[in-house]
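Reviewers asked in the last cycle whether our approach scales beyond single polypeptides. To address this, we selected a multi-component target totalling 578 residues and predicted its structure end to end. The input consisted of the following lines:
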Amino acid sequence: MIIQGDTGDWEIVIGLEVHAQVISKSKLFSGAATDFGAEPNDQVSFVDAGFPGMLPVINEKCVEQAVRTGLGLKAKINLTSVFARKNYFYADLPQGYQISQYDMPIVGEGTLLIDLADGSSRAIGIERLHLEQDAGKSIHDMHPSKSYIDLNRSGVALMEIVSKPDMRSPEEAGAYLTKLRTILRYLETCDGNMQEGSMRCDANVSVRPVGSTELRTRCEIKNVNSIRFVQQAIEYEARRHIDVYENGGEIRQETRLFDSAKGETRSMRSKEHAHDYRYFPDPDLLPLVVAQDFVDGIQATLPELPDDKKARFMTDFGLNSYDAGVLVAERASADFFEQVAAGRDAKMAANWVMGDFFAAMNSGDYSWEKPPVSAVNLGKMIDLIKDGTISTRLAKDVFIFMVETGKDPAIIVEEKGLKQVTDTGAIEKAIDEIMAANPDKVAEVKAGKDKLMGWFVGQVMKATQGKANPGMLNELIVKKFQE
Amino acid sequence: MSLDKKAVRAIAELARIEIPDEDLDHLAGELSGILQFVEQLAEVDTTGIAPMSSVADLTLPLRKDEVTDGGQVAAVLANAPDADDGFFTVPKVVE
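The resulting structure, written as structure tokens, was:
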């Protein structure tokens, strides 16, 4: 995206830092639970509360999840990594430091392919992924003069995933977050829920004149809780930079907050001096060493990832890039589609899944565990269309009955009498009746008003309660008028 | 490397330690002395030796992902100077 300023054209440079909460039963360095929504401070060990003398012991599942995510991002796994203390003071950080990784993260450089609206794809570099502890939660609206602190989240494992400054538009930033979330969910290493805060995003934004390769001073926009807001925040921030430069000013490196109500970013003064974190290796923790066998074992259990699945859907099922992209956005939707499409017309299966099925899914209290129509029944319904038992038009009714009753489509067709009429004699009889009742319109068609033929089709359909086979009906009507 | 008063004041502020101005010179001298003591290590030739982050020739032991702790709100809050309704409470942190 190019922004036209008063002095020339500008380009945006964006890098994203995503904090993804690791799916694990217990915390990174303690045996307290990680479930969302527990009573305050009920999931807190003395380690998480920073009590004196407590020592951290690392959770192997969290290490496995970080390696799994690294492999999913086609990144280098560092067999030796080191935990460091990031020192700062805040009421919800009881230790006075966050255990994180600094110069030796567990995962190094990787790549993520983003899918853009015009159907193209672009590779975005991953700089690193490291493991760290989450902080507790401060609640500021429970008391006029006090903040309330809940440490349930304190010590939960996070993966901080840092991109290279490779994105050039809010659209690309949105595509990056969407794709990253999809991959995390495929890998089952993070649930990707931005509303509940299990995936949080900080955006680093700067601008430069088009054609320049310099990296100018960036501002960091913290904790924006939806993809749409990230995009709004980036656009606002980029225009602010351009305004400052074009009026002869300078951008100061700072942390800013996005106000979604006003659609603007503003300086977070409290963070002004916070950038000196005085990292040093955590003396409580030895270097983390993982064996190549451990990494290979995880590699062997990786699921088929969305890019590969999309490519396979295009080659094996003949789907176009857009349809394949929509279907693989969730692992569950891809699995559902594959079940419906198995041994059937894949394009037809894709249309039904993405059309009536997705619409039904969004219209009620459904989930992939409890879909409005089972994949087996949707498949059977497609079989009934293919063998001519029902028309596509009748299938729409059958589909609605399936949502309502959950019954087998063959039983619904039987019970509701929805079988399409393919008996030539019966259809002809219906046509004859309509023609006999409307001699004036018959005359008009014969006089050359072809458009009226559609009206006859509609009338016959109505007379047969929509059960006439549409192909046969069209053919027979044309023939009747030629007689 | 030696530290001046300004650096000492900045470090104290980051560590949330209040230091009266008249102590700064003295502390700058002491801290610089410690740094110089440690800097003697730089005289050792470490060419070709990988940086170490621990002197123990051990690696990090891992634990199983099991819930073995928590469910002790009263104990967690026992030493809190101020608490309410299961929460720690602190003077309001204004953002």
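Chain B has a mean pLDDT of 91. We regard this as preliminary and will revisit it once experimental data from Aim 1 are available.
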